[in-house]
Amino acid sequence: MSELSVNHLLGIKYLNKKDIELIFETADHFKEVINRSIKKVPTLRDTTIANIFFESSTRTKLSFELAEKRLSADVINFSASQSSVKKGETLIDTVNNILSMKVDMVVMRHPNPGAGIFLSKHVKASIINAGDGAHEHPTQALLDSYSIRERLGEVTGKNVVIVGDILHSRVALSNIFALKKQGAQVKVCGPKTLIPKYIESLGVSVETNLKKALEWCDVANMLRVQNERMDISYFPSTREYTQQFGVNKKLLDSLDKQIVIMHPGPINRGVEITSDVADSNQSIILEQVENGVAIRMAVIYLLASKIK
User: Fold this and answer.
1) Which pLDDT belongs to residue 1?
2) Are residues 200 and 210 in the same domain?
3) 59 annotated among ligand-binding-site residues
4) In terms of domains, do 111 and 56 share one?
5) How far apart are CA 277 and CA 269, in angstroms?
6) Do 262 and 288 meet the contact criterion of CB atoms below 8 Å apart?
7) Which of 116, 151, 156, 260 makes an SS bond possible with 183, Cβ 3.0 to 4.6 Å?
C-alpha cells in the first residue's frame, strides 16, 4: 500500500504531488462509502481522535467530526474558547492532558500560525492542522482541488483565480501551494491593500481588474472578507468592495465562457457573490462541502495507518 511521506498534516507546504494524488484516490473510495445506505466503515474502531478548537468553527469542525464517525473512531471534542485555556493553561498542558486520555490523533485549529508544527514536536500523536491563524488550512485546499478535479477532470493546466481577502486568508495560501504542486496557473485578485507584498514570490500573478481575471480563469475561488482578522480598514466600504470585486449573475453571463465558481464558506451573500451565483449550476459550493467529508476521511485514514 502507498503511504504518505509525512506523519502529520501541518500544511500543504510539506506535502508532495504524490501525497496529494494518494489523498485524492483514497477520497474517491470514501466518497463511494458516504453515498451508500450504510455510511460507516469499521476502519478506525480502535483509534481515538481529539478535536481541539481554540477558535470557533462550525463547518470545519462538523466536517471533521462526521469524517471521524464515518470511520468509526472514538471522538473527543474540546472547545478551548470555553475552557481552562481561558484560565491561563498553556497549549502543551492542554494537549498533554488530552493525550493522557490515550488519544492517537489531534485535529487542531489555533489562532497562532505554526501552532500545529510546535505541537507536533512536543506530543506523541498525529497532528492535523484545521487552520492556524492566517497561515494554512490544508484540508480546505485539498477539498478545493479535489472538487476542481471532479468537475473539470484534472487540476493540471487549469487557470484558477483566488478573489478577495488574500492577506488574512489561510485558505488562499494553502490553495496556492496545492494548485501550484498540481501544475495549475494561479492568479490572485482583490484590493491592493488585501494582497500580501510577497505573493509573487510564490509564483502567483496579481490582477486587480475582476472582469479580466474572470475572462482568464477556468475556476474562480471567491473568498469572504475576514472582518474578524482586521484591525484597520482595508477598503472604504462593503458596498464599494462589492462593486469592484463581487461576482453577480450579470457579470458571469457577460463572459464568453462558463467558469466554475467556488467558495470555502461561510458566504457573505450579496458581498463577494450574489445568491443567484452561489445557487447556479456553475457553482460547486455544495460539492465542496460533501467532498470535505471524503477528503478528511482520507487524510485521517492515511495518517492513522502510519500510527499503528
Assistant:
1) 59
2) yes
3) yes
4) yes
5) 9
6) yes
7) 156
pLDDT of residue 84: 55
**Does some domain include residue 2?**
no
Q: What radius of gyration, in Å, describes the C-alpha atoms of the chain?
A: 19
Mean pLDDT confidence for 186-205: 95
Question: pTM, whole model, 2 decimals?
Answer: 0.94
Q: CATH no. for residue 145?
A: 3.40.50.1370
60 is in an annotated binding site: yes
In whole angstroms, give the CA distance from residue 91 to residue 97: 10
Number of domains in the chain: 2
pLDDT band (50, 70, 90) for residue 308: low
- CA–CA dist 207, 203 (Å, integer): 13
Do 155 and 184 meet the contact criterion of CB atoms below 8 Å apart?
yes
Displacement of CA 158 from its chain's centroid (Å): 19
Is residue 151 a known part of a binding site?
no
All three cell numbers of 70:
464515518
Q: Is 191 annotated as a binding residue?
A: no
Task: Answer yes or no: is 88 a known binding residue.
Answer: no
Q: Which residues contact 11 (CB under 8 A, 6 or more apart)?
A: 116, 129, 135, 136, 138, 174, 177
Question: Per mean pLDDT, which range of 50-59, 92-101, 117-126 is the poorest?
Answer: 92-101
Could you tell me what percent of the chain has a pLDDT over 90? Answer: 79
Task: Check whether 239 is labelled as a binding-site residue.
Answer: no
Domain that holds residue 192: 138-286
Q: Is 36 annotated as a binding residue?
A: no
* Cα dihedral: 172, 173, 179, 180 (round 10): 140
Same domain for 95 and 143, yes or no, is no
pLDDT at 101 over 90: no
**Whether residue 113 sits in one domain with residue 251:** no
- Residue 273 confidence class, pLDDT cut points 50, 70, 90: very high
Q: Is residue 152 part of a domain?
A: yes
Q: Terminus-to-terminus CA distance in the chain, angstroms?
A: 14
